[in-house]
Amino acid sequence: MQIMGRESSHYLYGTAYIKGVIQMALPDYQQEDNKETGGRRKKKHSPALAVFLSILFAGLGQLYNRRYVKGICFLVIEAAFLVTMLQSINYGLWGLRTLGTIPGTDHSIRLLVFGVLSVIGIFFALALYIANVLDARNQARKIRNGWKPSSFRNTISAFYEYAFPYLMTFPGLLLMIFVVIFPLLFSVLLAFTNYNLYNSPPRNLVDWVGFDNFVNLVTVPLWQDTFLSVFSWTIVWTVVATTLQIALGLFLALIVNDPRIKFKKLIRTVLILPWAVPAFVTILIFSAMFNDDFGAINRDIIIPLIGGGGLPWLSDPFYARIAIILIQTWLGFPFIFALFTGVLQSISKDWYEAADVDGGSRLQKFRHITLPHVLFATAPLLIMQYAQNFNNFNIIYLFNEGGPPVRGQNAGGTDILISWVYKLTFDTNNYSMAAVISIIMGGIVSCFAFYQFRKTRSFKEEGEI
User: Fold this and answer.
1) Looking at the chain, which terminus has fewer C-beta neighbours within 10 angstroms, N or C?
2) Where is the ABC transmembrane type-1 domain (predicted)?
């Protein structure tokens, strides 16, 4: 009997504890009064019926659960959607499927835009509909288990408390949809059409061509040669130019940070000055300096040293590429120098003193102390430098507009992928091929950045350095 009494007391304590946990975990609900229910569960309330009603029409499940205000809100939203948006979405989906049927009347690109907007609208409507169904199911389950829905005032209070952050981020979400997601979807879909100068609406209709553009890029000799040439130069340009500016910035930061160097503030100010000048001004000045006929580089440096007529900086692809790499090194090293200077000053001197005690050389201290610390602190920014130069349109276009021309190709000798896309878009109006190349560019940069970020120690757990 004593054992049974202990078990009964343990059961009562456990029941009270569980009841308290439930009350804390579900503040929006309260249990039914025992006097009202007689200590028994409420009469059967079917979650399946609530789900069915919500699927039938948004808000009916909430009305079944006696959440009248919420149910009316869902009813009004779906009714407004059906009245105002259903016809527009049907038209947009028709346009997305056909891109028009009557030349001169149907504008294929506008139909494509309406179609993308319709898909986005359907996504939001579907998300709201799923939220409506899940809410009805969860409410019905709680009612079946004996919980009473909170009052309208408590619901508003809880909504304000828990949903306020989402309301604040909603404008940013809309901005992201129309500035990022919509253009991205439009560009991707454009790559599967034949939209070019000869199929421009409204006189002509644009058609879906599937993967023909991707196939042509690697099989048609003109496109294949141009793509391989531009792509290989883009990789070389990105790696060489970015690595040079990083190496020069690190070298100068190490030199200036040496304790034996005097006038450090003055030297740092002078080295950062190229960063203070607008990049487009610097590029235009260098473009004039590298001019084949009257540029200062040929007139004052090359001709006095080696004679002849100077080097063809703008008319020969090889020399034009060298010039662009040198200019980018000049433009990029001040930022790297300032970045590395701040990191070097944060390294504890005790590490170097301990290395001196152990007999470490300058090279060993650089390899095992300075370089790991610098890379750990700056790796994400260095990765972004490579990604930025991969799409560095300004220097390519401002220096010589991607020239000089190359025989047998529809891109210039210094064109990288981004400048080639610009020419395809605005010079030849070949929008579909420009979209194809843009997709390839985005995929390359995304994969590279994702892989490098995953491998970078800066994004791993602390304590690994």
Assistant:
1) N
2) 231-452
Domain carrying residue 101: 40-199
Residue with tokens 């004593």: 2
Comparing CA positions, the residue from 374, 315, 367 lying closest to residue 346 is 374
| Burial class of residue 17, CB neighbours in 10 A (0-12, 13-18, 19+) | exposed
For tokens 């390294």, the residue is: 347
Tokens coding 78: 């779906």
pLDDT at residue 7 greater than cutoff 50: no
In angstroms, the CA 214 to CA 230 distance is 16
DSSP 8-state class, residue 310: -
Do 186 and 325 belong to one domain? no
Q: What does the radius of gyration of the chain's CA atoms come to, in whole angstroms?
A: 33
Give the predicted TM-score (pTM) of the model: 0.79
Burial of 83 (0-12, 13-18, 19+ CB in 10 A): exposed
CA gap 49, 82 in Å, rounded: 23
More confident residue, 236 or 454: 236
258 and 338 belong to one structural domain: yes
